[in-house]
């Protein structure tokens, strides 16, 4: 039974934290033989029931999520402790974030001070820099996927739409929530997923500073797209007076409808807004270790992708040569036949 399976793994269910159409998230205690379960540290466990999901999810999105989760480790990304499967269920054990998600926090506490918003934006930016350096895109950045710990640090979570991507590779799958999707995704064009992540982060920053979504329309993609292209996000006059010019500049450059003009992660990290807090100018030791590892992994992946592309080109070339040879032989046969008939 499931109870026996979890007991053997040293996991005790405490309470249900939330559920979706095919998954449930529980607060649990993780104990060993030496620990009293009631005093064991708490973790969060997501149970995914694949019998309730689509074939697309089982064959494409779940393998991608698990592949990414097993490769990433960063101080501002929720930590994976344990991953196991039994029949059609996957059990994903992660760090528990005591203060819930960013959306809950904003709704409960109202406006976040600009200093705190800056600090949290810096942490999220470093998490995204790490992912993008590893050639991983998240594709579902939103306030519900930003978790807050007891010590008021933020951690990015939910890698259900994430994937590895080549240097020049474009995405075409519509992912994420409409309110956090950039114009190019709503236009169902192939898109640069790294720039798409930056737009979504821009919406998160806006919500932290203004306590509302940037665009009025939240349901009709066509109307929302028009608002986005016209840059008609609204900062209420009161907030406009309070916010620094540098924070408004960040919003402007992240919510830029033209992907090529939109800031990438480096421009955000080196922005004047983040530089206002001297603590954010340098990476912490843990951030540096993670970033160095990301560079190494990213280079290995890029090299692997280059080799794959070269191999694909060789195969195509062989096919073209073979097709040409076949065509030449057929042409020769036809000419011989014509010559024989004319005799």
UniProtKB/TrEMBL annotation:
Keyword Cell wall biogenesis/degradation in annotation: no
Region feature (Disordered): 297-343
Positions with a binding annotation for ATP: 46
Keywords assigned by UniProt, alphabetized: ATP-binding, Kinase, Nucleotide-binding, Serine/threonine-protein kinase, Transferase
Domain Protein kinase: 11-274
A family per Pfam: Pkinase
Record family assignment: Belongs to the protein kinase superfamily.
Protein name from the UniProt record: Putative catalytic domain of testis-specific serine/threonine kinase
């Amino acid at each position: 039974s499931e109870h026996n399976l979890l007991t053997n793994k040293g996991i005790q269910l405490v309470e249900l934290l939330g559920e979706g159409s095919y998954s449930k998230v529980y607060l649990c205690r993780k104990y060993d033989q030496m620990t009293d379960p009631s005093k064991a540290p708490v973790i969060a466990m997501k149970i995914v029931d694949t019998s309730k999901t689509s074939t697309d999810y089982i064959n494409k999105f779940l393998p991608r999520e698990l592949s990414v989760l097993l490769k990433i480790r960063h101080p501002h990304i929720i930590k994976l402790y344990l991953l196991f499967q039994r029949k059609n269920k996957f059990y994903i054990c992660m760090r528990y974030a005591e203060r819930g998600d960013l959306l809950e926090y904003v709704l409960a506490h109202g406006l976040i001070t600009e200093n705190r918003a800056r600090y949290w934006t810096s942490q999220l930016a470093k998490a995204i820099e790490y992912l993008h350096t590893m050639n991983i895109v998240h594709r579902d950045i939103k306030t519900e996927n930003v978790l807050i710990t007891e010590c008021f640090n933020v951690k990015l979570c939910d890698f259900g739409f994430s994937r590895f991507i080549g240097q020049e590779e474009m995405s075409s799958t519509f992912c994420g929530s409409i309110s956090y999707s950039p114009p190019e995704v709503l236009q169902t064009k192939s898109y640069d997923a790294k720039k798409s992540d930056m737009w979504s982060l821009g919406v998160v920053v806006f919500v932290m500073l203004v306590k509302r979504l940037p665009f009025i329309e939240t349901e009709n993609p066509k109307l929302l797209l028009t608002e986005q292209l016209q840059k008609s996000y609204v900062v209420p006059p009161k907030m406009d007076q309070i916010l620094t010019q540098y924070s408004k500049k960040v919003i402007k450059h992240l919510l830029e409808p033209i992907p090529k003009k939109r800031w990438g992660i480096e421009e955000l990290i080196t922005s004047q807004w983040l530089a206002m807090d001297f603590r954010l100018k340098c990476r912490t030791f843990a951030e540096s270790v993670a970033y160095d590892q990301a560079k190494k992994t990213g280079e290995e992946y890029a090299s692997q992708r280059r080799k794959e592309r070269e191999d694909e080109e060789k195969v195509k070339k062989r096919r073209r040569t073979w097709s040409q040879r076949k065509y030449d032989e057929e042409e020769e046969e036809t000419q011989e036949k014509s010559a024989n008939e004319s005799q």
